[in-house]
Write a structure and sequence with these properties.
This protein is mainly beta and about 120 residues long. Helix content is about 0%, strand content about 60%. It is elongated and about 45 Å long.
């Protein structure tokens, strides 16, 4: 089994920063593309940022210049550094990863989500 566990969410004032982490664990053979998505109340889940195993990144226009995605392949961990946070960044943030195990081909897995609230 593969598990993704996010951490680092919380309440922050506008203009503040947070760093999210997501650890992938289990009988992992390799991790491939990883990313962060978010879902605000009443809205669809949307892409925030993705990163390939080779560190190529992609960002939603709304977070470019403010958020930075990175990964540590040795630790099977992906990070999201969020700076200059705005109230509209408030959402549940979900980590996802494409993972192959010793018993299965590549599949997409999701974390349980971590709440980020930006409010004064």
């Amino acid at each position: 089994q593969v598990q993704l566990v996010e951490s680092g969410g919380g309440l922050v004032q506008p203009g503040g920063s947070l760093r999210l982490s997501c650890v992938v664990s289990g009988s992992i053979f390799s991790t491939y593309g990883m990313g962060w998505y978010r879902q605000a109340p009443g809205k669809q889940r949307e892409l925030v940022a993705t990163i390939t195993r080779g560190d190529s990144t992609n960002y939603a226009d709304s977070v470019k210049g403010r958020f930075t995605i990175s990964r540590d392949n040795a630790k099977n961990t992906v990070y999201l550094q969020m700076n200059s946070l705005k109230p509209e960044d408030t959402a549940v943030y979900y980590c996802n990863a494409f993972v192959s195990t010793y018993s299965d081909y590549v599949k997409r897995y999701w974390g349980q989500g971590t709440q980020v609230t930006v409010s004064s």
